[in-house]
Amino acid sequence: MPENRPVRAPDLAAKKQNGEKIAMIAAYDVTMARLFDQAGIDVILVGDSLGMTILGYDTTIPVTLDAMVHHAGAVSRGTKRALVVADMPFLSYRITDSEAVRGAGRLIQEGGAAAVKLEGAGLVAGTVKRLVDCGIPVMAHLGLTPQSVHQLGGFRAQAKGANGAQQLLEDALALQEAGAFALVIECIPAELSRRVTAELRIPTIGIGAGPHCDGQVLVSYDMLGLYENPPSFVKQYAQLRSDITRAAKEYIDDVKSGR
Length: 259
Description:
Structural class: alpha/beta
CATH topology: TIM Barrel
CATH class: Alpha Beta
Strand order of the largest sheet: 1-2-3-4-5-6-7-8
Low-confidence stretches: none
Number of strands: 8
Helix content: 40-55%
Oligomer: single chain
Number of domains: 1
Strand content: 15-25%
CATH superfamily: Phosphoenolpyruvate-binding domains
Shape: globular
CATH architecture: Alpha-Beta Barrel
């Protein structure tokens, strides 16, 4: 595809077919979105991880739909090429399909997102189908699903046993059948990621799931060294936390000294 043409959901399937890896990053504001977009990122996720990185919560659970719409709007205004995907927050899609459609519609209409992301499987597959039938592209998410952190017993690796691995594969196939255009798989064994990626027609995007996925996603605050305690699997490509602290101290010294 031409370098300056906007990335659309079907383009990710074409990248998988062509053996081209997909680069995805989570961002939350117009400035970061503009920088990542200009760098050539394929997908920007407006993640409900903003609960921790931006709002100071311990989990994603307190994040509201209004907050997601607000940040999706900021990111979409800073993006010209990348595909903008917005997380649907906790309980915004698990009560009724009608409520899910209304919430996803707000993220598209008000937030400017081009697609939404849902966590989980089972009944969620039916919701995915309903959204897709309404013309809303859906990215799915399996493995460690942060909105289920209390049910999972914390932020820990998933599907490590044979039964769990088989269930995850079956869930992935069901979400593909429901119409999801891509699947995020988080914190599962690398060999299982390889198997799921080989079985699916749609692309897989890993986070802490090894190198065998069709793409990778990281939280920008982790990748840039802004967040104090990133997950162990994160490669930090910069150390902006120390750079910003040093710059702030130099500014304070200049002000105090009258320079």
